[in-house]
Structure formats: structure tokens, C-alpha cells
């Protein structure tokens, strides 16, 4: 018999290669400036590298505890208490994860059973809906308003007896919208009479601009009691390739989370955990991050003002969305391909974040780049 490769019945038949991979490859092919995929083109603080190297040389190279290195879990608990006023138990309520995407997927696996419904606010990060499908859950998508703010009447209308979880993201990717204290209190009131679990994707928590404060689910007792709060060291410290994140949740939720986590990844890179724990002793890097990225945002927006793009508000994250209707009537994916191939700047179409491919005539740029990179991209965009 000749060799035979089995034919698989795909668990994700509608899923192909992500738009981020596609656009980054297209940017490389055409020598374009990549403002598409959300990662910095500058290095992290050398002190962080030194801390990881010290851990390696000290011999911290074997398996750590499944839930994470105790010193790092304690550092995370201390940071949340200092910033948001809620004290998590480092032993029972903080888990170190292989990035935020794994954290969100593991939280869903821990709470969602086949047939359960999960409310997702769209546009949303592209892993959410496939994660829910892999759990056997049913995604109930609720569009954000045209200004990308939550529509609480629509969220309330989407709740059914089968609703198991709600997934929110603030600061928001892709729009850069930041939820207000009033938004979070409205969410608290909405969920209070229910047993719905909240999964709060807060990976851009330290990138909030114009004097505003990040309103973590940890700040609100009612939300903290039902929430998995997800954060990302990769986003915060410019090391996205390290894929290290954290989850804070009440002990009962954490216990179920860890049951899945131990058979999902079991644990996370040891020396990087020790290095991050040492680095977190100084709060300045994350406390100064909003000012760091606001300067980049302001520089980029000032440059965009000289182009034909319509600049949308950006209150947080490191993404800037623009309307391009004055330049082209192409669908957004086609426009991004044209922009990459002909103009030499890569962006991400907003329809990639919409479950139905909804067209808003909007694309997303990432400004987590060196000033020289941003200036070079702006020069090309100004020529449109």
C-alpha cells in the first residue's frame, strides 16, 4: 500500500492564515514599512535582558512551579494592589501563562461547555471566536457602537439562560477605545444578578492617554469576583516574542483555570519569569509607559494630519485607526494590499476583526515603532 495521509474533518473549517501573517509577509515581499502587525521595532530595556541572563547563569533553567515562579506571581499581585486597589493572593489567584492568547483560551476552556454561549463585542481580536468554537461554545456577537463604545442595551439583550461568559477588551484592539469608569460600573450592574463569568483582556492596560486611568475589572469588587483579568508582559515591556502573560482571578476560578493550564502548556519559560520578577521591582517602566506611547501617538497623528486619511480617536493601546474614503473606495482588505504593494506601508483592514467581514472603510496602523520608522511611513502616506 502507498503511504496514506489521513483526511481530517477540520475543527476550524472557516479559518485560514491570519491577516497579520498575510500582511507581514506581503510587507516583507514588497519592502514595505510594516505598521500592520502589533509589535515594536525597537529593543526592550537592557536591564530586563540582564535580569534574564542572570537567572540563566544562576541555574534557573528547569521546570518552575506549574502556576508560575512564586516571586513573579507575588510581583504581579503587588502591582495590581498598588494600581487598582484589589489584593489577589499570589499563591491561589495569580497564574503565569504563555502569553495572553493562551490565557484567554485556557479561561474559556475552563468555563465553557459545549452549547454554552459567550458574548463577544465586535470588532474583536481574531483569536476570540476560534477559541470559543474549539471549546464547543456558541459565540453571540454584539457590535460595538459606531464610536467603538459598548452598547449595554444590546449586551443585555444578548444574555440568555445559556450565557456562560462575556469577553471584553479595554484598551481596545483594534480601535484604541478605552472604557470609562461609568462603562465598568454599568457592566458591573448588568452582570450582578447573573452567574456570567467575565474574561477581561487588559493587555494594553499601561497604554492609556491624555491623563485618563485604566479601569481594570480588578478595581470593581463585583467584577473582580467573577473575572479572569488577563495581562501581557510582552506588550508592557516590548518583548512580544517572549509570550509571557498573567491571569488574576478569584481562587475558585483560578483552580479551574489551572486544571486546564497544567495540561495545556503546564508552565512557562523559567529564566524569563525570574527576570521579569526582578525587573518588576522597579515600577517606573510600566508607570511611564503611557507617556512613552502617547508621544509616539501624538507624533504619528500629527503626521497623519498632513495626509488624506480621516483620523479616528485613539485613547489607548498602540493602534491608530483611520478612514480612507477620501483616497479609495476599495474594500478594506484590497486597500491594505494596494497600500502595501504600491505605497510601501502595511496596515490591517478592520474587517479582519469582524465576524461577518463588515466594511467600515477603516484600517489600523500600529505606532509602536521607532520615530524614524513612523516618519518614513508618514512621508509615503503624505504622497497619496
Brief descriptors of the model:
seven-stranded mixed β-sheet, Aspartate Aminotransferase, domain 2, four-stranded antiparallel β-sheet, globular, 384 residues, 2 domains, 16 helices, alpha/beta, Aspartate Aminotransferase, domain 1
Give the helices and strands, then pairings.
Elements: H1 19-30, E1 33-34, H2 46-58, H3 70-84, H4 90-93, E2 94-97, H5 99-111, E3 117-122, H6 128-134, E4 138-143, H7 152-158, E5 163-169, H8 181-191, E6 197-201, H9 221-224, E7 227-232, H10 233-236, E8 245-248, H11 251-264, H12 270-279, H13 284-287, H14 289-304, E9 310-311, E10 319-323, H15 332-343, E11 345-346, E12 348-349, E13 362-366, H16 371-382
Helix pairs in contact: 1-15, 2-12, 3-12, 5-6, 5-11, 14-16
Biggest sheet character: 7 strands, mixed
- Which CATH architecture of the largest domain is right? 3-Layer(aba) Sandwich
Count the domains. Answer: 2
CATH homology superfamily of the largest domain: Type I PLP-dependent aspartate aminotransferase-like (Major domain)
- The largest sheet has its strands arranged as 2-8-7-6-5-3-4
The average pLDDT is 97
Could you characterize what this model shows?
The chain is α/β, with parallel strands linked by helices. The chain has 2 domains: 19-44 and 288-382, Aspartate Aminotransferase, domain 1, CATH 3.90.1150.10; 46-285, Type I PLP-dependent aspartate aminotransferase-like (Major domain) (Aspartate Aminotransferase, domain 2). The protein is 41% helix and 15% strand. The chain has 16 helices and 13 strands. A 7-stranded mixed β-sheet has the order 2-8-7-6-5-3-4, with helices on both faces. A 4-stranded antiparallel β-sheet has the order 9-10-13-12. Helix 8 (181-191) links the parallel strand 5 (163-169) and strand 6 (197-201). The longest helix is centred in the last third of the chain and has 16 residues, at 289-304. The N and C termini lie far apart (60 Å).
Amino acid at each position: 500500500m502507498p503511504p496514506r495521509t489521513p483526511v481530517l474533518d477540520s475543527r476550524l473549517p472557516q479559518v485560514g492564515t491570519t491577516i497579520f501573517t498575510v500582511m507581514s509577509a506581503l510587507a516583507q515581499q514588497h519592502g514595505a514599512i510594516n505598521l500592520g502587525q502589533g509589535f515594536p521595532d525597537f529593543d526592550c530595556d537592557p536591564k530586563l535582558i540582564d535580569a534574564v541572563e542572570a537567572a540563566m547563569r544562576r541555574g534557573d533553567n528547569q521546570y518552575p512551579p506549574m502556576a508560575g515562579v512564586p516571586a513573579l506571581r507575588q510581583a504581579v499581585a503587588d502591582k495590581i494592589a498598588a494600581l487598582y486597589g484589589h489584593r489577589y493572593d499570589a499563591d491561589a489567584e495569580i497564574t503565569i501563562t504563555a502569553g495572553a492568547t493562551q490565557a484567554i483560551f485556557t479561561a474559556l476552556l475552563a468555563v465553557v461547555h459545549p452549547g454554552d454561549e459567550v458574548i463577544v463585542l465586535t470588532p474583536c481580536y481574531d483569536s476570540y471566536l476560534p477559541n470559543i468554537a474549539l471549546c464547543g461554545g456558541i459565540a453571540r456577537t454584539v457590535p460595538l457602537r459606531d464610536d467603538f463604545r459598548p452598547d449595554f442595551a444590546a449586551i443585555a439583550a444578548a444574555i440568555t439562560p445559556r450565557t456562560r461568559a462575556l469577553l471584553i477588551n479595554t484598551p481596545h484592539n483594534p480601535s484604541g477605545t478605552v472604557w470609562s469608569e461609568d462603562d465598568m460600573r454599568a457592566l458591573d450592574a448588568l452582570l450582578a444578578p447573573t452567574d456570567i463569568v467575565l474574561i477581561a483582556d487588559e493587555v494594553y492596560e499601561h497604554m492609556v492617554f491624555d491623563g485618563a486611568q485604566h479601569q481594570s475589572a480588578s478595581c470593581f469588587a463585583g467584577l473582580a469576583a467573577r473575572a479572569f483579568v488577563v495581562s501581557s508582559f510582552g506588550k508592557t515591556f516590548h518583548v512580544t516574542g517572549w509570550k509571557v502573560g498573567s491571569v488574576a482571578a478569584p481562587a475558585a476560578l483560578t483552580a479551574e483555570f489551572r486544571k486546564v493550564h497544567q495540561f495545556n502548556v503546564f508552565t512557562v519559560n523559567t529564566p524569563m519569569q525570574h527576570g521579569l520578577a526582578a525587573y518588576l521591582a522597579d515600577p517606573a517602566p510600566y508607570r511611564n509607559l503611557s507617556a512613552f506611547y502617547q508621544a509616539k501617538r501624538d507624533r504619528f497623528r500629527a503626521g497623519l494630519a498632513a495626509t488624506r486619511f480621516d483620523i479616528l480617536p485613539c485613547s489607548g493601546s498602540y493602534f491608530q485607526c483611520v478612514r480612507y474614503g477620501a483616497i479609495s473606495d476599495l474594500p478594506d482588505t484590497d486597500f491594505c494590499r494596494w497600500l502595501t504593494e504600491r505605497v510601501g506601508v502595511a496596515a490591517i483592514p478592520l474587517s479582519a476583526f469582524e465576524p461577518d467581514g463588515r466594511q467600515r472603510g477603516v484600517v489600523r496602523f500600529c505606532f509602536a515603532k521607532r520615530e524614524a520608522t513612523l516618519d518614513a511611513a508618514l512621508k509615503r502616506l503624505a504622497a497619496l
